[in-house]
Amino acid sequence: MILKLALRNLWGAGVRTWLNAIVLSLSFFTIIWSQGVYHGMQVDATRNMIAMELGGGQYRHPDWDPYDPLTLPEAHGAIPAPLQKLIVADKAVALLLAQGTIYPDGRPQAVLLKGIAPEQQILELPPIAPAAQPGQIPVMIGREMSESLELGVGELLTLRWRDHTGAFDAREFLITTVFSSSVPTIDRGHIWLRLADLQVMLSAPGIATLVVVSPEMTGTQLETDWVFRSQDYLLADLRAMVRSKSAGAAIMYALLLFLALIAVFDTQVLSLFRRRREMGTLMALGLTRGALIRLFTLEGALHGVLAGLLALVYGWPIVYWTAVTGFALPQASQDFQFAIGDRLYPVYTLELVLVTTLLVLVTVTIVSYLPTRRISHLNPVDALRGRRS
Amino acid sequence: MTAEPVIVINGVSRLYPVSSGSFAALSDIELTIAAGEFSGLVGPSGSGKTTLLNLIGSLDAPTSGEIIVLGQKVQELDARGAARLRRDQLGFIFQTYNLLPVYTVFENVEFPLLLLQMERQKRRDAVMDILERVGLADRAGSRPAQLSGGECQRVAIARAMVKHPSLVLADEPTANLDADNSHRILQTMLTLNRDLGTTFLFATHDDKVIQYLRRVIVLFDGRIAQDEVRDETAVSAGTPGGYF
Ligand SMILES: Nc1ncnc2c1ncn2[C@@H]1O[C@H](COP(=O)(O)OP(=O)(O)O)[C@@H](O)[C@H]1O
Ligand SMILES: [Mg+2]
Question: Which of A106, A338, B21, B101 sits in a 20 to 30 Å window from A315, CA-based?
Fold first, then answer.
């Protein structure tokens, strides 16, 4: 019954109701949409990183610290037997890492050399095409690297490195492959070589720095002295990064929601002020103060419901369309350092929608209730005279 | 029906605090209203009519004394009980109509029945029946802003009457109406009083109302100055007021 009355009042209030509902629905939609975008980024980046870099987890040489390049010269050794077995069974791939220096425009620039078996199937990397002439060593670089060096397929690249004994060596390499990937951490500052070539260059055959297992191996852990880092562990950084980005966005939609809530609050205060006589009449007709409070609170809270419906009407097509077809990211978002593709597909979870709906409804109900509490001091005689108590 | 009175008022006073102590809007009121009466509190502005009507309607509480409405001691009711009494038994008619502006005529009149949780079809029938009686059945879909003052007050009467209350309290119902409309409204109420046995208590200083009253209770400075029951012939002949 109260609901019916509240709906009638809301409907009767016309333009004001709609304005409030529109502002509320905008913040509602913005929250869902932006969170969907960030979630989509995470899903996409996670998928790409697993496919191209992390696989189902890594076994690392115990001396290797990925955050300290100075450990690299020591951080390799013979592949432990259980891992070797996996590699033979096509369930893992060995990577050898070393430091090198290139000289674009004559200036030295440190690069990371990565050796990988060209025939591997574990990571979604193209095979490094062989060089046409014998004696040339083929290398592969990413698109970004290629653009920044202004070097493409068929061009030569001078590289200097230290071998196993610490002696410097330098020579020219032939770029045979340029790959494009959405994972910046395997592109920027990386030079990919065939594992065997790099082992020869370091004059240390049979060694590796880490072994990446295939995604289907996620969850199993082998007995070895190499340090196991699970997929979850490796993705933690990414997740933290997405969290901090989406927390930044949260400030924006908290502001929007705040504005909308102020509008609803204002409407409530105003109607309590203007509708005193109406309240007195309702009490004379037999409504209790409690019912009056419920009625006015519900009236305010229904703005939230209306906003939800409104957001559904214009938001659903947008949400659906972008989720299915994705949308092209503007150039600036490349700075995100996420492993996201050219098109972003927002991912909207049921949880996201439910939590957001609840958030909007609860906050709207609270701001509707706050001014309404004053009704409990209302004296029907004063209210009927239109006086303020 | 039994002879039990609709309103019993014993030694009721209502004091308002003012800067110089307290002001007695009503002093030591003794009054009994029987079922089916068509009576009025008559007196100049400020004599305490509205105050007494509000006390009877359980919208306000007396400073001292006892008020019994339809067998219930009003002071003993809590807020919920008072609201229930108003919802179930009382009808209010105000000088300013106090219709709900966003509702249609139909919805305004339907409102008390919604509070009573009456079912839809019964509600519809009751609303249309009472709108018929006040001559506004064809305006059911209009909003108060589209009606004249007389029509608004007839809607208010319909709203007060639709649940067939035992007692209707009408505070200056004709104050904003011209002579024609005043007479129509009083005729309507008199008819409802006869047909349904509803007890009416007015507060007024309007001669046009006074001539319809069967009992005139004169208030002056918060006291009952005169209480006169008039016979049927005097009423229908339209005896003028002249009480103050
Ligand atoms: N809330 C109040 N506070 C102080 N005085 C009041 C209040 N309400 C009414 N009064 C006074 O009580 C007296 C009776 O008022 P009221 O019952 O409205 O008279 P009437 O309806 O006969 O014109 C008036 O003098 C009025 O000023
Ligand atoms: Mg008055």
Answer: A338
